[in-house]
Write a structure and sequence with these properties.
InterPro entries: NUDIX_hydrolase-like_dom_sf, NUDIX_hydrolase_dom. It holds the Pfam family NUDIX. Keywords: Hydrolase. This is Nudix hydrolase domain-containing protein. The protein is 19% helix and 36% strand. The radius of gyration is 19 Å and the shape is globular. The strands form two sheets. Strands 3, 4, 5, 6, 7, 8, 9, 10 and 11 form a nine-stranded mixed beta sheet that branches. It has a two-stranded antiparallel ribbon with strand order 1-2. It has one domain: Nucleoside Triphosphate Pyrophosphohydrolase.
């Protein structure tokens, strides 16, 4: 019987046990020449591309349905909650961010599409982390009668995909937040941009 995920302990992580991240003590000189110290977390998995990860904004086109996108729901231990996010993942050592975006979309959602845009390298939380990423837009064109594809999740991945019409995405994210889910900032900002462009400009 499936059970709800939960955090069962939080302990300090010794540096020699950290597989994915490391802490850095950054010494830098400010605009007045004063030497300062900054603490940051850094990924240990950055490959040849120089990009840690990709997030995928999907546009699903269907002959008789409104344009839609895909969000995923998964439990994230650092925040102790189900998070609502873009499909996303790390860029493998030997691949490009563009290739990673198409691969990750298929693995996490089952959908296959064509890359139509890849952003410059952008940062997610520059006050705390060196992590960077690129935002991809992948278009999926469906035909009448196409069945929902099967996900290709790795062992230990528990990801629920949700197809949401673009014109109701902002309201759906607000509803998820009221339910106690945590909405990823990148997804919320993207949805808010669509919403504000439609309602305020």
């Amino acid at each position: 019987m499936p059970q709800s995920p939960k955090v069962t302990a939080v302990d300090s992580l010794p540096a020699n046990e950290a597989k994915w991240i490391e802490f850095q003590k950054i010494t830098w000189s400010d605009q007045t020449g004063k030497s300062r110290i900054w603490e940051a977390a850094s990924r240990k998995t950055r490959g040849k591309s120089g990009v840690d990860a990709v997030a995928i904004s999907t546009i699903i086109r269907h002959p008789s349905r409104p344009p839609s996108t895909i969000v995923i729901l998964q439990y994230r231990p650092p925040v102790g909650a189900i998070c609502v996010e873009f499909p996303a993942g790390l860029v493998d050592e030997s691949e490009t961010p563009s290739d990673a975006s198409v691969r990750e979309l298929h693995e996490e959602t089952g959908y296959k599409g064509k890359l139509s845009y890849i952003s410059p390298t952008i940062v997610s939380d520059p006050g705390m982390s060196t992590a960077n990423m690129q935002l991809a837009t992948v278009e999926v064109n469906l035909k009448e009668g196409d069945k929902e594809p099967e996900q290709a999740l790795d062992d230990g991945e528990f990801i629920e995909r949700v197809v949401v019409p673009l014109d109701s995405l902002f309201e759906r994210l607000e509803a998820y937040s009221k339910e106690g889910k945590m909405v990823d900032a990148r997804l919320f900002h993207w949805a808010a941009g669509l919403h504000f462009a439609r309602t305020m400009l």
